Amino acid sequence: MLIQDLIDRAGMSRFQVAVVGICLVINLVDGFDVLVMGFAASGVAVEWSLTESQVGLLLSSGLVGMALGSALVAPLADRIGRRPLTLVCLAACAAGMALAAVGTGPAVLALCRLLTGLGIGGMVAGLPVINSEYTPRRLRGTMIALYATGLLLGGAVAALLISQYGWRATFAVGAALTLAMLLVTALALPESLDYLAHRRPAGALARINGLLGRMRLAPVEALPPLPPRERSGVRAAVLRGQGAVRLALLWTAYFIMMAGFYLAASWTPRLLEQSGYSAGQGVSGGVLLNLGGIAGTLLFGALALRAPGRVLTMLAFLAAGAAFLTMGLVLGTTAAALAAAVAVGISVNAAGAGLNAGAPGLYPAGVRATGAGWAMAFGRLGALTAPRPGGAAPGPLPGPGDAVQHVRAAAGRGRARGRRHHLVRRAGLCARAHDQGEPMKAVRLHDYHKHPVVDEVPEPEPSGPLDVIVRIGGAGVCRTDLHIIEGQWAEAMAPRLPYTIGHENAGWVHAVGEGVTNVRVGDTVILHPQPSCGLCPACRAGRDMQCADAFFPGVSGHDGGMAEYLRTTARACVRLDPDTDPADVAALADAGITAYHAVRKALPLLHPGTSAVVLGAGGLGHIGVQALAALTAARIIVVDRNPGALHLAASIGADATVPADGDHVEAVRALTGGRGADVVFDFVAEQGAEQDAWEMTAPAGSLFVVGYGGELWIPTMALVAEEKNVIGNMVGTYTDLAELMVLAQAGKVTLHTVRYPLEEAPRALDDLALGRIRGRAILVP
Ligand SMILES: [Zn+2]
Ligand SMILES: [Zn+2]
């Protein structure tokens, strides 16, 4: 058409660059709004104690909204105009995001996500249309590719914000950004030229000439003639004749592209884990996939300057097909499969950029948004069919990683058969090979600095008279597990690899040795993490952790509880109310007992009128706060970097909260009449917190060091002149655990938990390393 020819012949004016820029930023904000839920899920799940299926509903309601938006809302652009629809959709998005930030429960949040999804689905089809109309044909592929990177960048920004400020603040930021783009759009985004030329709203010619003027192009004298077939209506143009063939081809292309995208998205993180990259090393599947996506779309954009988009899109699909095929062939070799999965990610993103650039042009202007919207909506179905790891296994939809786990487990069985297991004889545990047990799943550390692997190993059996076999109901995931993987315990404990990790365990008694009298098969129990001998001086004084003849399942090279069954001893079992869900309390076995132990030791110092600081209100700290509130009349001051953690602390007993923003030592002094606190519990003890904790401690006060990793530097003069005390704390005693369970069963100490299936241990460890877990991660076999 004439107008398009004018644009194609000229360069891009500043106005056109601004239009493309606005579309890109809107897409960035869309990416933020869409992807935010995936990163927020764990925080939301903790705050509201959600089940897996509730989290799944939250994640899918946004996607359902997008599909509905593309199918039902996007076509409105062909009737009311692209610009008004974009404004309405942005408003819907902003409302959904704002309401989500103050959401009171999962149902409300799901509705918010649906609303946001509808808004995004409604505009994602129209924006590339505006974008490409204002771009000369030769630059179109490149501009659309640039535009497409916006979505991925937006997701990355959301992920960053969540790790720093928590999910509510991030949703609020998304709402503000969306609102800002609503204003920018209202002020500066023009209507689609083709829409004006073909739908011909009142004053169309004047508006077109105004826009041409802003592009420094000559005005046109009349609107171009309408091709006759467009008078016959939307459905006819999109669905009949040549349109039907296009529809079939385009819909299939979108379907395959989306299936490929989700295939890469669900496999890459798992393959990364399998090849041994831990989140502690700063590599995560999501990040890699985003980078691959940006690389793919930019590559497409660069090539589109030199080659026709249609050819490039075809090549991208061919490359994606080859990558798929390769991935299928090399699935047994993790590194090769990973490379292939990344290649799939890059090529399907390039193909997506090509489709988005080309699709609008396939339809006459009057039905462009409808045609592209329907194609995208249909493509979303492709996402559902993406072969997740596990393939066509019967039964419930298999989770990511199943097939690979299977390969690994089979390899593990082979290794086990070729070698005898020798356990070190300690604490009355008989050493013997135990190949005869039934196979069970266990999370085993094979190499330091690599993810543990879910293997099949023989079930443990009682081998000494005081042995107890526990069927695990919940195993806590702890920062100590990350330290173990990093090799920090290698020297102190000299464990022999591989072994099963997991030292925060609760479950049901499954079998007992002939000398066990304190528990029976079927009892619900939580386990003291270190089974002790009961005979040495430390044991007789009740100091279980200092036992001369103890072992530490999950840490010392003895198999721990991230498995279906665990071997421990009678002395480690604390019996619980039979109705207790072990997964609710498992982490009290280490995180809980450690916090409680320090508070319990400090009790004589915390008479009414005193003050106590809890530095670090994470997994341990939030239990420390509850124990202090339950046992003392001291004023409780909580210091933490994370506003979410402070919010939680205030709701469970903190009298005052102080953000760790650099002025926190002064803030604590101000709250304590300038003296500092009588008792400071340092649950962090690294990265400078240890020194802050010392500075916050009042003269004659006591600093209880619970966290570890840093170094405390104290001039002896200060120690002597002010008579301050520094007290170390290592886990806790059996009695501490028993007392803590009394508090827990009375509801005075509750643990905030996020549950993962046992098979997803690597993901749980990543989430912990990346600070995505509020409260405590629990593996449930
Ligand atoms: Zn622990
Ligand atoms: Zn002992």
Explain the overall architecture.
This protein is α/β, with parallel strands linked by helices. The chain has 4 domains: about 1-225, Growth Hormone, Chain: A; about 240-420, Growth Hormone, Chain: A; about 440-445 and about 455-590 and about 760-780, Medium-chain alcohol dehydrogenases, catalytic domain (Quinone Oxidoreductase, Chain A, domain 1); about 595-730, NAD(P)-binding Rossmann-like Domain (Rossmann fold, 3-Layer(aba) Sandwich). Helix content is about 55%, strand content about 10%. The chain contains 29 helices and 16 strands. Strands 3, 5, 6, 7, 8, 15 and 16 form a 7-stranded mixed β-sheet that branches. Helix 29 links the parallel strand 15 and strand 16. Helix 8 packs across helix 13. Residues about 280-285 and about 390-435 have low confidence and may be disordered. The protein binds zinc ion (2 copies). One zinc ion binds near residues 533, 535, 548, 549 and 550.
Features:
781 residues; alpha/beta; Growth Hormone, Chain: A; Quinone Oxidoreductase, Chain A, domain 1; 4 domains; seven-stranded mixed β-sheet; six-stranded parallel β-sheet; 16 strands; binds zinc ion; transmembrane helix; alcohol dehydrogenase; ADH_Zn_CS; zinc; transmembrane transporter activity
